Amino acid sequence: MTQILVRWSEPLPAQERFLRLLDELERVRYGSYRQELDRRRFLTGRVLAKTLTAARLGGSPESVVFDATCADCGKPHGRPTVPGSDLTLSISHSGNLVGVAATDGVPVGLDVETSSRKADRSLIEYALSPAEQAAVAELPEADRPAAFFVYWTRKEAVMKATGKGLKIPLQSITFSAHDAPAALVSSTDPALDPARTRLADLKAAEGHRAAVAALTTSELEVTEEHWLP
Questions:
Q1: CATH architecture designation of domain 2-226
Q2: pLDDT tens by residue, 133-142
């Protein structure tokens, strides 16, 4: 059984008790965001990740230092890792919700989206496989956006788990029905093997949809918690 902890929070205020958890490079990234909400989302992701890491590995959140080197360009905006540890992390945010997923020893991916987003025909055709498009088309028009974002968060979660992101064609992967337990049914991309991919739809928070994925053959045991500082 692969155990995954998902910790959620609303964007935190820019208070010194949170800002002091950022290292020098993280402070540069924090300051590079033009919008206050984007700065708060970044800050919250790091605070959640560092408090969770400290709880799992010991020590204080202030002592946690991530390596976020991007594998493609070498800049410090990649997935945060903990040198010398097999703890794996994934951060996602949308709307008024920020989340971190953590597990041990296997790649993990988390995605959250606001459920108020619209899904027009062009987006559905771009993102969904032919089988998924057919399933959505059978639904009443009012129900299609909600179904679409179930598929979308699943796709984002598994692609984040691979570390390849949108380099994997969205139409190359097909999932179980939006109202069925989450499962990768087929993939034509070699980075994703249904036999070694597990995922789960999450409760997240009202007004949001979310999914978490791990590249493993074992079943997932997912715990969600809302963090209060």
A1: Alpha-Beta Complex (3.90)
A2: 999 999 999 8
